[in-house]
Amino acid sequence: MAEEAALETPGTGEQPVLDFSEVLAESGVTGVLDQLDRDLVGLTPVKTRIREIAALLLVDRMRRTLGLTAQAPSLHMSFTGNPGTGKTTVALRMAEILHRLGYVRKGHLVAVTRDDLVGQYIGHTAPKTKEVLKRAMGGVLFIDEAYYLYRQENERDYGQEAIEILLQVMENQREDLVVILAGYKDRMATFFRSNPGMRSRIAHHLDFPDYTADELVAIAKLMLAEQQYRFSPEAEAAFREYVERRMRQPNFANARSVRNALDRARLRQANRLFAKGGRVTAEHLMTIEPEDIRASRVFQEPVSEA
Questions:
Q1: pLDDT, tens digit, 9 for 90 and up, residues 11-25
Q2: Domain 20-208: what homologous superfamily?
Q3: Of 101, 123, 203, 291, which residue is the least packed, with the fewest Cβ within 10 Å?
């Protein structure tokens, strides 16, 4: 271990010393944080908070190495924000960080929704919830749209049973499982008000802002590059206009909507090349043109000025 390699005892009576750089390098955490920067455009507040949590955990680990006692930090989290803002990706990287620093045994992520936890009849919920928890042990359990676990309007809803089981495990087995609850900010606030026991177990609240138009265009270019596509200059301008229009329409889901738009643009590009026929180069096959973007119905639908 790096702590052992970096632990120095300069002389009799002097305190042992850890080299922060060596411990950090051995953990591999810097690589995970760098990967997070590459994976996600923008989200500076979120990335800053993840780095702060990583620093806290690294220092806690070094304190334990030097025999300093302290209560293990609480690691359960809440991620709030609109769809497509990177919550699942950050959860994956958080699981890696926790594993590299020794706070979870495996570092895997189990992502679920209400349907994976809550049964439809008496006696069904507990086995479903416990099976999910069993799969997640040693890693991170990511519960998307967590507020759907609690349905106040239905006194006979079985979601409360799942919540009670989760609360017990979050408290009694917090050294072997980290739970991340995710969803819309306003709905998560209501959920926590209705479930104070859950609120008290959440140590870190991260809010994921919506992407700007510039960030969404940058995300689109990265997505295309991963598949060896690119915009022509005119197509990039058309896609920026598409994004600005789409952001003002209902059900916009940030990077998720961008990915769907690119899938449709690639489909139109393929049909355009197929219809044209003749000889093509790699450049033709790689390039998205403005007509592949402007054929979207987004350009035909009225745009809200709100």
A1: 555 778 888 888 888
A2: P-loop containing nucleotide triphosphate hydrolases (3.40.50.300)
A3: 123
